[in-house]
Sequence to fold (1300 residues):
Amino acid sequence: MLAYKKEFLQNLYRTMVRIRLFEEKVGECFLGGELPGFVHLYIGEEAIATGLLSELNQDDYVASTHRGHGHCIAKGAKIKPMMAEIFGKSTGYCKGKGGSMHIADFSVGMLGANGVVGGGINLAVGAALAAKMKKSGQVAVTFFGDGGANRGTVHEGMNMAAIWKLPVIFVCEFNQYASTTPSSYGTSVPNLAVRAQGYNMPGVTVDGNDVFAVNEAAKKALEYVRAGNGPYMLEFKTYRIKGHYVGDPELYRSKQEVQDHFDKNDPLKNFAKVVLAKKWLSQKDMDAIYAEVAAEVKTAVDDARKDPYPTDSELFNDYYVEGGVN
Amino acid sequence: MLAYKKEFLQNLYRTMVRIRLFEEKVGECFLGGELPGFVHLYIGEEAIATGLLSELNQDDYVASTHRGHGHCIAKGAKIKPMMAEIFGKSTGYCKGKGGSMHIADFSVGMLGANGVVGGGINLAVGAALAAKMKKSGQVAVTFFGDGGANRGTVHEGMNMAAIWKLPVIFVCEFNQYASTTPSSYGTSVPNLAVRAQGYNMPGVTVDGNDVFAVNEAAKKALEYVRAGNGPYMLEFKTYRIKGHYVGDPELYRSKQEVQDHFDKNDPLKNFAKVVLAKKWLSQKDMDAIYAEVAAEVKTAVDDARKDPYPTDSELFNDYYVEGGVN
Amino acid sequence: MREISFSEATLEAMSEEMERDSSVFVLGEDIARQGGIFGQFKGLPQKFGTERVLDTPISETSIVGAAVGAALAGMRPVADMHFADFIGVCMDEVFNQMAKVRFMFGGQCKVPMVLRAPDGIIRSAAAQHSQSVEAWFMHIPGVKVVIPSNPADAKGLLKAAIRSDDPVLYFEHKVLFPMKGPVPDGDHIVPIGKANVSRAGKDVTIVSYSLMMHRALEAAEKLATEGVQAEVIDLRTISPIDKETIFESVRKTKRLVIVHEAVKQGGVGAEISALVAEEMIDWLDAPIRRIGAPFVPVPFSPPLEQLVKISADNIVKTVKEICR
Amino acid sequence: MREISFSEATLEAMSEEMERDSSVFVLGEDIARQGGIFGQFKGLPQKFGTERVLDTPISETSIVGAAVGAALAGMRPVADMHFADFIGVCMDEVFNQMAKVRFMFGGQCKVPMVLRAPDGIIRSAAAQHSQSVEAWFMHIPGVKVVIPSNPADAKGLLKAAIRSDDPVLYFEHKVLFPMKGPVPDGDHIVPIGKANVSRAGKDVTIVSYSLMMHRALEAAEKLATEGVQAEVIDLRTISPIDKETIFESVRKTKRLVIVHEAVKQGGVGAEISALVAEEMIDWLDAPIRRIGAPFVPVPFSPPLEQLVKISADNIVKTVKEICR
Ligand SMILES: Cc1ncc(C[n+]2csc(CCOP(=O)(O)OP(=O)(O)O)c2C)c(N)n1
Ligand SMILES: Cc1ncc(C[n+]2csc(CCOP(=O)(O)OP(=O)(O)O)c2C)c(N)n1
Ligand SMILES: [Mg+2]
Ligand SMILES: [Mg+2]
Fold:
């Protein structure tokens, strides 16, 4: 393992904790009946977004999934307007029009969560095409699950990106389940990275619960992609610690299975184990970050609660640029 | 190479010649302005349908493509109602409602050509699912081109067939072009069989201009599939000797390229070379078949020309089973 | 009559038809392990085995394509769309295969399949999980489209759809699933293509379907207290449309309002209105009014979502405008 | 004025806009090597290079999805659908991404893209290559839909669509491509959302668009010889609809016929009729008549295909029925 700058490690930890606490709070608020819509939490998968997106520039693009809060945070979105959006408030990133499943922050290249499984794949391909045409040096990263991997549009996007050598990284978050369906049932291969061969692109399977492994893989992939070699596929093995959505009765798996994973392979615990053992960070360092983030999340919720809902007159805003509603 | 029964060899030759002469006649009639719609000829690819479908039972299923005449003939459809259909006559397989791109003969399990590239893939998957549910022992074969391979629905169908271990053979007819687009441009890998790995199914690349190689590969695939092992992918390398459609100016390739292929690797010439060298068939045997088929094709056209068009009253027939048109 | 929920009613239909005919089976995402995302398939795998109750990958084009293929090979599949919003993913399979193969192939085959699609606005599910797109399918020759509003029709139409040798789209509003209502015992079938006069009246005809039927009936109650007797027609099938039932009512009431949750522009209401304007215009004493959502995607935030939903009061107001 | 073909007119539009704005590019199947399946992109790669004129694999979801993504990243893509019949393949991308992202994301982005889709019946292309599906898209909030009938509008609307910051569907009838007509020199723009009165008249209003405009104008000629002066309106844009132009005409003529090639049920004609039945009913002196294809897939055999096509005589007959 390489040596890391302390600041980098602190940032990794801050991002992972920010996602974890943000998501815990969202879950809490949802169960408390405060949130409209439905929410899919990223808990247990923090190492992926964090280890990977920490290597991107602000103007690089990310196209996300229905489980998008973590991607948003790791790409640099602020949690205040995120929380406000999830509350449906006019101060949210999408002014309350999108909610959890359509959260986006274009100012940091985050092209949105997506309510359609697989819907983000080709947005990233297109953004990468734009980057290539503009010779801007930007890259695009797109996420999909072990379930989403079986959508046809993923196949189309990977082939298209490959023939045009587009700067895009296809990231599979293999968290073992697609809603209630275990990937061992619905997905014909144990390691989806094998599919990369079908498009003549590199594909590697990496431990997605180890932020350092993710980060190393990300750096390699980015080097390859930024050099103009074309797309790259990263498959991260991980586990969805929470239900598919908040409120999921989780009848398709045992509590024991979840607890075991949480005890043995939670990405935050994994991180702590390494940095403490190597003395890269102290418990005190980590506690300070944790406390700071907890306060930040609390403020975000407090504010979101107080923020105003959009007024009726906002319904037809942010819609056609040039008007045209009958 | 194995030894073949003479009758089998005669049948192979008869089928290949039947396809070739049928298609030549269709091309002629089209250029003569006799045919409505547009037609895609199978000339140059005869060895694939012939070598493969000769191994199927009558009740096995085939789902075809826009280039479906050859599949139809090799599956056992009669050329008279085929020709009539292509002429748009009421004596055609689809009573003139389908034409070349929707030619079908359900009595021999031929579930139709398809005007949508990739449209037939999942029809075959579904037919195979039905066969499995009914434990009928039937298999389904579906064709797609090197261009069609890039459609998402192919990906979805292959994964689904794999997880359910369905008795279906996915056949890629790699004829180097998707309309005007060379496969080397639009398809990210030189051998599409590599994609089979992504679904945990066997996938082999075979010389599609050699009917014996096709036949051997087909037997292996069928044995595997009929034994309940799940789907199988066959990729046949071939070449489209004629234009994408009759009338194609073929600006995307040189006449020389086509002529070279025709001289060196035409599946009919290849067949003749082998059977004559091995003395499996004599030139006389082959000439007799050729003459017989030529007469058969001539009759089919003569009849099709004379057959009646559907009458106006037929428009709403063969439509809703239970009525319901306003 | 016993009362059961809409979702139980669909379950009974599935169960009875699967028992009756071994070629009936169901496939879709989260059907077997979850019992359907709205519980509408609960218990079926226990009863019929996971060979006939199939969880699928997230592969909508394969779900519908394979259902068509299985139908061609003699089965009677019922496919589930999870959310009607995802039907765009397999629109080609619906539009170019399911709807057309029988005709294109000159009647050599039939496609006895049902595609179930839960639709409508529910609890701020936002722009991609709240849509009603039934109107697209009335513009597609070759399919039939049903859309029940209550448990009895849910059961009867689903049974009819499963038994039909034609391909049927079955839209079911997500908000209806838990709603209870009387359902006849026994082999209850509601014929495809027949509308129902849910409430008789003489002053105005309100045509609706699905969840909006409940708003329409509420509106009719309110109107009755003000002396306006609304006749309320539940279309139940939107393709083919039961013109006669509508025309008969309009002959009597001379006023027509059509209500649906989908956006007004290009919706089912346009077709109904046009049919009447074409064949019944001389009977009308007032403009034909349509009530549908404003032309905008469904917003997430609850107060905004409220603005695109139709209330009984909207209907009352519109009816009064044309009953002056 | 100089006369050029419809297809040349679209080529001029593409060329001029690509010259004007380096962020405009085009992608689709057989665009570069073939110049488009109807020759409508011929010469563009020679002029602008294959970096801006992209042949794609047969991957419609990627074509539209990537166009949306490129638009989000600052480009102005023009995507080609090959045949409108294949738009079902990428319906989800059109419906759930292209149409909605700007709204869902609260206006953080815009989607300045055009999706071109050649539609309509041509030469026995049969059920999967002859369709007109524009009506679906007028039911989708978030997109605009244009559909020119002649070379001048083809050019002007395409230029407007490319310059529009909103996503636009551009339907072009396959039979129109070789048709010639006058096209103004210079930077000719036809505004989106404005219908055109193509022929003035006082006895009846015929509303149409695309190829059927030619049948409508022929019909108007014939009617004129019999003393009926038809006003013929070319919608040009079907979403948003230019109600005012239609209403103004109906106020004068008091009679309305709508003509389109798509099946009548659930078509654009229903919406036009319903708008008039809603807001203008008192002006009418006759039923509103719609002329569209019978509700059946397009058959292959020429004599059958003929039965689903609309002729000038059909229109004449219908007009006479309501002008008695
Ligand atoms: C096209 C489409 N089909 C189905 C759904 C419903 N759905 C939402 S999330 C989900 C499971 C996704 O599983 P996976 O891709 O593994 O992502 P994960 O939830 O595990 O992060 C399903 C089936 C959808 N949103 N879009
Ligand atoms: C979904 C879809 N997209 C595009 C087309 C137009 N099209 C018809 S055939 C063809 C090329 C097919 O190439 P390939 O799959 O290699 O088959 P081949 O013609 O070479 O046999 C195209 C693009 C279509 N019919 N369907
Ligand atoms: Mg998953
Ligand atoms: Mg090919």
User: Anything to note?
Assistant: DSSP finds eleven helices and seven strands in chain A.
